């Protein structure tokens, strides 16, 4: 999506070879107009695919996921990061390893908001190593729902997330694909 690529070039900060900061329009301050257009683009890609709910992981995925959910006319379910100790029969839980923080967390969804009749689209801000998306997929499958795909705003194409997901037969749709980062350098995959 040209609009997003231009915004990343104008305001994104490549902190290192691995980390892209987009705090001024996605992760800290949010640009609602851009978010709305990105949500529409995602919805357009998945229109007619029988999606019943969108799922995202709190908290950075909520803004794009909400916009996509509104455009598709389906509810948004937020997968919550919660402590593991609670043993509750009405919850599905799985452990996810966080790439940016180098920590693990428990991902949780209430059985009230997902069922075997659901066909779910996962939306997040970034795809890097695919740990978050893989955790979300595992959780959704525990509830016997099916996965329509994983859609992200920014894919770091030099990291193995897409490959990992596609190996499992998951459709991956990203709005911007970054091919290289370095201090002050941001390059995109050239799509033909
Ligand atoms: P993964 O699980 O695919 O390795 O990482 C995905 C999660 O890590 C995203 O939800 C995002 O919050 C965070 N993340 C990964 N790489 C970056 C990055 O370069 N910049 C920012 N802001 N977040 C990232």
TrEMBL record:
<feature type="binding site">
    <location>
        <position position="27"/>
    </location>
    <ligand>
        <name>xanthine</name>
    </ligand>
</feature>
<dbReference type="Pfam" id="PF00156">
    <property type="entry name" value="Pribosyltran"/>
</dbReference>
<comment type="similarity">
    <text>Belongs to the purine/pyrimidine phosphoribosyltransferase family. Xpt subfamily.</text>
</comment>
<dbReference type="GO" id="GO:0046110">
    <property type="term" value="P:xanthine metabolic process"/>
</dbReference>
<comment type="function">
    <text>Converts the preformed base xanthine, a product of nucleic acid breakdown, to xanthosine 5'-monophosphate (XMP), so it can be reused for RNA or DNA synthesis.</text>
</comment>
<protein>
    <recommendedName>
        <fullName>Xanthine phosphoribosyltransferase</fullName>
        <ecNumber>2.4.2.22</ecNumber>
    </recommendedName>
</protein>
<keyword id="KW-0963">Cytoplasm</keyword>
<keyword id="KW-0808">Transferase</keyword>
<dbReference type="GO" id="GO:0005737">
    <property type="term" value="C:cytoplasm"/>
</dbReference>
<feature type="binding site">
    <location>
        <position position="20"/>
    </location>
    <ligand>
        <name>xanthine</name>
    </ligand>
</feature>
<dbReference type="GO" id="GO:0032265">
    <property type="term" value="P:XMP salvage"/>
</dbReference>
<comment type="subunit">
    <text>Homodimer.</text>
</comment>
<dbReference type="InterPro" id="IPR000836">
    <property type="entry name" value="PRTase_dom"/>
</dbReference>
<dbReference type="InterPro" id="IPR029057">
    <property type="entry name" value="PRTase-like"/>
</dbReference>
<feature type="binding site">
    <location>
        <position position="156"/>
    </location>
    <ligand>
        <name>xanthine</name>
    </ligand>
</feature>
<dbReference type="InterPro" id="IPR050118">
    <property type="entry name" value="Pur/Pyrimidine_PRTase"/>
</dbReference>
<comment type="pathway">
    <text>Purine metabolism; XMP biosynthesis via salvage pathway; XMP from xanthine: step 1/1.</text>
</comment>
<feature type="binding site">
    <location>
        <begin position="128"/>
        <end position="132"/>
    </location>
    <ligand>
        <name>5-phospho-alpha-D-ribose 1-diphosphate</name>
    </ligand>
</feature>
<keyword id="KW-0328">Glycosyltransferase</keyword>
<dbReference type="GO" id="GO:0000310">
    <property type="term" value="F:xanthine phosphoribosyltransferase activity"/>
</dbReference>
<keyword id="KW-0660">Purine salvage</keyword>
<feature type="domain" description="Phosphoribosyltransferase">
    <location>
        <begin position="40"/>
        <end position="157"/>
    </location>
</feature>
<dbReference type="InterPro" id="IPR010079">
    <property type="entry name" value="Xanthine_PRibTrfase"/>
</dbReference>
<dbReference type="GO" id="GO:0006166">
    <property type="term" value="P:purine ribonucleoside salvage"/>
</dbReference>
